[in-house]
Design goal:
2 domains; Thermophilic metalloprotease-like; 18 strands; 8-stranded antiparallel sheet; alpha+beta; 399 residues
C-alpha cells in the first residue's frame, strides 16, 4: 500500500508528532509503547526501527484481532472482562510515550455483542488512561496515533483500497518531499488561530446549521488546542467546555462506526448540560446504551472546529481520526459526548485534580465519542463583556 520511502516518511512524521506532543524532550532509554493492529505491521516495523535509531526502548503490544474481540466480549464472564493483567499499571506509570497504529480488519464484528459488556471493560481500564493523563500533565508522557489503510475501512467508506490509501497519503503529506516541514507549517497556522480565539473572552458559542442549534459554554480557565502532534493527521481546533452550559440541538450528519455498530443521523437534545433526547436514523438503541455507560456519558466533553483551508481530507473515511478532521466544502464541527481533555485547562496542569475538574465543569466518563457535522454553519461567539463576533462561517475561521 505504501512504498518503503513512504513508510519511512510516515514513521518520521509520527516521531515529530510524539516529540511535539510531549512538553519535555525525549532522552535515550525512554520507554515508548508501540500499539498496532496486525494489519499495520509494515508501518509498525518502520516505527520500531526509528525508535531504536532514536535511542528509545520500544515496548510492543498488538491489539486484539476481530476474532479475539468477539471471543473476549462474547464469551468472557464479567470477572474476565474487568480483569487487568499484572504489570499494566506499572507499565503505564513508567511510559514516556505511546504510538498507536490503527488498522482495523473489521468494523462490524462486535455488532452482535452487548455494548454494556464493552462499556464494562472500558470502565474497568479507565484508571490506566487516568495514569497517562496525569503523567502527560506533568510533561512526562506524550502520545500520538495514526491510521493504516485496510480493505474493511475502504469498504465501509465506499472507497477502493487505492482511493483510501491515497486519502491517507494526501492527508498526512506523504505525497510531499518533507511531510514534517508541512506539519510544522500547519502547526504555525493553527497556532495563530488558537491565539486569536484565546484573546476573546467568550461566554458562550452558538452553533447554527440546517439541523444544529446548539449553545456551548467554553468555561473558565480554558485554552484552545489543536495540531499538537497527538493525532496524525489533525487539523482541528478544540477545547473541553463546561458541560453544564450545553443547551439545544446537535446533529451529526456524518455516519460513525463504534464497537462494531454503524450509526447515522444522530440527533441529541441537551438541557441543563445533559442529553435529554436521543434520535438516530440508524442505531438509536446502540446510541442510548452508549450514553448510559456511566454518569458522564450523556454530557459534553469536547467541542471542535476544522477549517477547510487546513484539512486535506475530502472523503468519508469510516475512521474517527480522519472524519473528525474532515475538510470538504464546509469544514466541520464535532462534539464528543463523554470524557473531557484535561490539557485544555489553561492553568498549571499539575494542580488539576478531580475536585478542581468537577468545579470547573470538566466532564468525566469512560466514554469519548466524536460525532461530526459537515453542514454549512455559522459559529458566533457571545462575548463576556457584551456583543457578538462570528468566529467561523463557510467552513473557515474568520479571525
Amino acid at each position: 500500500m505504501f512504498s518503503e520511502s513512504e513508510l519511512a516518511k510516515y514513521a518520521r512524521t509520527l516521531w515529530w508528532g510524539l516529540t511535539t506532543a510531549r512538553t519535555k524532550p525525549y532522552r535515550p532509554g525512554d520507554v515508548v509503547l508501540l500499539r498496532y493492529d496486525q494489519t499495520a505491521t509494515p508501518l509498525a516495523e518502520a516505527v520500531f526501527d526509528l525508535l531504536v535509531e532514536e535511542g528509545m526502548v520500544p515496548v510492543t503490544r498488538q491489539y486484539l484481532t476481530p476474532a479475539m474481540e468477539v471471543s473476549f466480549y462474547g464469551k468472557g464472564a464479567e470477572a474476565q472482562i474487568k480483569a487487568v493483567p499484572p504489570g499494566e499499571r506499572e507499565l503505564m506509570e513508567n511510559l514516556t510515550g505511546l504510538i498507536s497504529l490503527l488498522a482495523p480488519a473489521s468494523l462490524t464484528h462486535l455488532s452482535g455483542v452487548d455494548p454494556a459488556k464493552i462499556g464494562m471493560g472500558a470502565v474497568a481500564r479507565k484508571f490506566l488512561r487516568e495514569i497517562m493523563e496525569e503523567r502527560e500533565q506533568s510533561g512526562a508522557f506524550g502520545w500520538t496515533l495514526c491510521a493504516y489503510p485496510t480493505a474493511e475501512q475502504a469498504r465501509c467508506a465506499g472507497l477502493s483500497v487505492e482511493e483510501y490509501t491515497a486519502q491517507i497519503r494526501q492527508a498526512c503529506f506523504l505525497d510531499t518531499a518533507d511531510p514534517v516541514a508541512e506539519w510544522k507549517r500547519v502547526h504555525a497556522d493553527v497556532t495563530r488561530v488558537k491565539e486569536a480565539l484565546g484573546a476573546l473572552e467568550i461566554d458562550r458559542l452558538h452553533i447554527e446549521s440546517a439541523h444544529c442549534d446548539l449553545h456551548v459554554a467554553p468555561g473558565a480557565h480554558r485554552r484552545w488546542l489543536g495540531v499538537s502532534g497527538h493525532n496524525i493527521p489533525s487539523f482541528e481546533v478544540f477545547l473541553s467546555p463546561d458541560w453544564r452550559g450545553t443547551e439545544g440541538v446537535y446533529f451529526a450528519d456524518q455516519p460513525s462506526y463504534r464497537s462494531g455498530n454503524r450509526v447515522e443521523g444522530v440527533r441529541l437534545e441537551f438541557k441543563a448540560g445533559r442529553v435529554t433526547g436521543i434520535a438516530a436514523a440508524q442505531g438509536v438503541d446502540f446510541v442510548k446504551k452508549q450514553l448510559a455507560m456511566d454518569e458522564g456519558a450523556a454530557r459534553l466533553g469536547e467541542f471542535s472546529l476544522t477549517d477547510r483551508r487546513h484539512s486535506r481530507i475530502g472523503a468519508f473515511m469510516a475512521s474517527t481520526l480522519f472524519d473528525e478532521n474532515f475538510g470538504g466544502a464546509h469544514g466541520n464541527c464535532h462534539v464528543a459526548v463523554g470524557a473531557s481533555y484535561s490539557d485544555t485547562y489553561a492553568g498549571d496542569q499539575t494542580t488539576l485534580d478531580a475536585a478542581k475538574k468537577e468545579a470547573l465543569g470538566f466532564n468525566d466518563s469512560a466514554l469519548h465519542w466524536d460525532l461530526v457535522n459537515t453542514e454549512d454553519k455559522t459559529v458566533t461567539a457571545l462575548l463576556a463583556g457584551g456583543g457578538t463576533k462570528v468566529i467561523y462561517t463557510g467552513g473557515e475561521f474568520t479571525l
